[in-house]
Every structure is written in structure tokens, then in C-alpha cells.
């Protein structure tokens, strides 16, 4: 709940309570309370922004305003008395009404992303690259080449009073794409456009520091999008990493093309993906090649070709690769093929050949949901480097994205395993940071070595430790 929303609900409760008092105990001055509430709602709409969860509160305020306007105009000297049973019924009805009005914004809040916690401010930039060596196979146009959209978080020197971007940046339509794919009411996630991040758009990169290690991140299939793990990206960037989230057009919920138009999920391919192993293999190859394409262009970023603020700020000798779900499958395959991959992290990701039978040579951390249908223990056991298998009790597949923060009702709707969303993102952030700190920066990471009282939901096993 946001500050002004709380004040509005308190005023509404007071106004409702006044209306149920016996007539002889009412103070006429309280009749003006809905007018104050109305003014506060106008300020709230301007400063905080409207959201659908508050619409019942807005309507209640209008109803009280109309009722009290009528009372103020009334010339009757004594209000008509009401039977006790009727007054009691009205009180109970009003209480029930207020519970509904006040709990809706609580159950589906404008959630807060956790503070990144590092020593750097955070910048964010977007760019779309085109791979002119690869025709786009999801369209029929012969001159259409593969576009690879990127969202980049980095350590920044934010200007004073720099305003952080909102969660969707300038693409709020993504929420409608997600609800449509989930068969949910179209407006259910519109409020995500009001969520404030901690990153400033195109801010200058932090100077006076050695170059920063780079982490490539690949989102999940179908419901994935570039900023699906914003909390994790901001945490890593604030701790001195450049994190590049890589979009996979036509197999993500929605990602932008080079003109800023959103490319939606190609729904006609969903059945083929689930039933046709050859098509799934083709998709995995495309995703892996998307990652490799960005990996090959990291020297161009270092030279300032795409984003001038990153000139000279990338450490190309320390590169991590990460991914969630199918994105983690692509990350694993890339690391199997590329010596430039120095560390691998996957979030509840399935594994396919040749990763199932070959041995990864990089330090690897595999996150798994409590009842994961994806993570294969044999992949962890075959790693020829330090390897970690981390299971989070109470977690389900989509808890490994920011969607775990959307609502306490996630578990009831089948989108969560019941783990507390705030705790879930803390676990993802802190264990991921510890892993990359140890294996890309050679820093101590005791969190990886023993159970933590702060994270009792975590079970971690490790092998090949130095």
C-alpha cells in the first residue's frame, strides 16, 4: 500500500463510522470529511497514479460525498430515527463493504522491489541488435533478420534527482500480453506500470573503478520478458556487475523490436514446442545463438559502439551466463560450447542433450523449485568444477521471477508454491550474488558453504569445492 492510499482508506473508515453513529451523537463538521477525502484522492491520482484495485475506494468516496452533500442541504432539524436492528444491519454491511474496499489494494499491491543493497547506483539502457547472418525463421519475410533486444543494468553514477524508471519502462502493454496468455482479466497486472525500480535510464556509468564483470541473462519461454528478474538485475548491478538481459522474439511474452514495437508471443508455435522435440531443439539452438551473438558483440560494447556510457567498463575476461527455465537451458548449452563462459547459473531450468551427457567445465549453480519437474541432478553431478544444487522449499516455477511479488494470492491461483515473495527474491538475490562474487570476483562467499538461519527454506549441496 502506498502512503496516500493508506490515508484515503483511513478517512473513508472514519466517514463510514460517523454515518452509523446515532443521530444525536453525530457532529456536523464530520459531514465535510468526504470532501477532504475527495481532494486527497485527486492528489493521489496526480502523485501516485490510479490503479484498478482502488476503484471501489474511489466509488465509496463518491457515494459518501453524495450522501453528505444531501445531508448538508437538508433542512430537517432532527434526522429520522432508525430501529436498532436496522442500524446494526447497516453497521455490519458497512464493515463488510470497507473490508472489501480496503483489502483489495493489499492483496494485489503495487509491490516494492527490494533495495539493491550494493555500493553503486544503478543505470538501465535498452538496445536492439540485428544479426544479419541469421534470417528470422518465425516470419515469412525473406529480408527479415533475427533481432535481439537487450535490456542492460550497470553500476552507475546517477545524476542528482534522477528519477528511477518504472517496471515496464515505456512498454506497459506487456501486462496485457501476460494476462491474455494466462486467461486472466485483462486489467489484472496493469498496476505493474506503477512499480518503481531503482534504476535511472541511460545514466552515466560509475567511473574510477576497474572494469566490471559481465553477466548474460536469458529469460523464460512463453511468459518470459526482458525485465522478469529486475530485482536480481538491480542487486547485481549495484554490486559491480554489468547484466545484459537478452530477449528471444516470438517465444517471449513480448519484447521490443528495433522500432520500439512489441513483438508478441507466437501462439501458433506453443503446441509444437511442447509436443515436437525437433522444434524444441531448433528453438534451443536459436536461443543459444542469440546468447552467442551478444557474447560476440561484447567487444563492441566495450568500445562504446552501442552505448557510449559503457565504453571501457566491461571486463571481458570475467563473463557469467544465467537463465530462467528454457533460458537456463540455452545458458547451459552455451557454456558447454564456449570457453568464454566463466560461470553458469540457472533458475529451475530443464536440461537437454548434449548437456545431459557431457560435463560442464565452469562453476555452476542450479536453483530448483521444491517439486521441480525440470532440474536434473545428474547434470549437477557431472560438473568438472565447483557445483551447487540449491532447492527452495515452498517455491514453484514462476517464483523464480518477479511475479512472485505480485500478490499473496499467488499460491491460491497456482502461480506460487506458497513461499513468501519477498523472502524468495532475497534468496535469489543473495545466493546468486554470492555465487558470482566467488567465481567471477574471487571474493569470499560463506553463504554457499553452510545452512543459513536467515534462509531456512534453502537446502544446498555442493561438490568440487576449492
What would you say this structure looks like, in words?
The mean pLDDT is 93. Helices cover 35% and strands 18% of the residues. The longest helix has 26 residues, at 277-302. The chain is elongated, with a radius of gyration of 26 Å. The protein has eleven helices and twelve strands. Strands 3-1-2-5-4-8-9-10-11-12 form a ten-stranded mixed β-sheet, sandwiched between helices. Strands 6-7 form a two-stranded antiparallel ribbon. It is α/β, with parallel strands linked by helices and 466 residues long. The chain has helices spanning 3-19, 33-47, 55-73, 84-107, 173-181, 230-238, 270-275, 277-302, 326-337, 377-381, 421-440; strands at 121-135, 145-156, 199-201, 212-218, 242-246, 254-256, 262-264, 314-324, 343-347, 364-369, 387-392, 458-463.
- What overall geometry do the principal axes of the alpha carbons give? elongated
What's the β-strand tally?
12
Fraction of residues in helices? 25-40%
Sheet having the most strands: 10 strands, mixed
Q: Roughly how many Å is the radius of gyration? A: 26 Å
- Write out the strand line-up for the largest beta sheet, numbering strands in chain order: 3-1-2-5-4-8-9-10-11-12
The share of residues in extended strands comes to 15-25%
By secondary-structure content and strand pairing, the structural class works out as alpha/beta
What is the averaged pLDDT score? 93
End-to-end gap? 46 Å
Q: Count the DSSP helices.
A: 11
Order of helices and strands: HHHHEEHEEHEEEHHEHEEHEHE
**Poorly predicted ranges (pLDDT <50, ≥5 residues)?**
none
